[in-house]
Amino acid sequence: MIAKRRWRDIPRISEELWSELQPTKTRWKDVYVASATLVNGTIDPCAVFVEKDTRDQQTLFPVYGFIRSKYMFDDARMIDAASVVEVKSSPYAIPPEIAEMLEEHGHFDDPIDLARLRLRDGTEYWIRKSWPGFFVGTPSGYSSSDITRVVEWGAKPSFAVEDEMWVEVVNPPPYRLCIFRRP
After folding, report:
1. What's the DSSP call for residue 80?
2. Global confidence as pTM
């Protein structure tokens, strides 16, 4: 459902939630990634918390079609800050050192959006990078904390067939945005 809301209606989060949010440790200063538990018991493993009236909010909101006086609130892509009762670390949050490695390629002049990652047990798999790149897909049974390094970057034509079998690419998990005000 999409509803119109006013910027002034964005609520403050509790002191408890604020103390649990961890910064991304990247170039985003006012962005926090987490797994969010909502009032109705739903757990959203990929939530991006963005502080209202910050440069990061202004950078991110065009993706969600906001306008200045009011914004369109889409439940499929957003979380109302008033509905969050608990935050924990996300099993899909990209570790900062891996995020730095992934940023080495994929800029406007280097359009590589695929990378092969290595896990602690030596398993390697391909991912599709996303923007803004807060979360990373993992094979079943693994979390982002199992990633040890970026092995290589690729463009689809150069690696799509490996030993005459298609290489599976893990897409980034979907995430929801939560704009909030500090307590």
Report:
1. -
2. 0.81
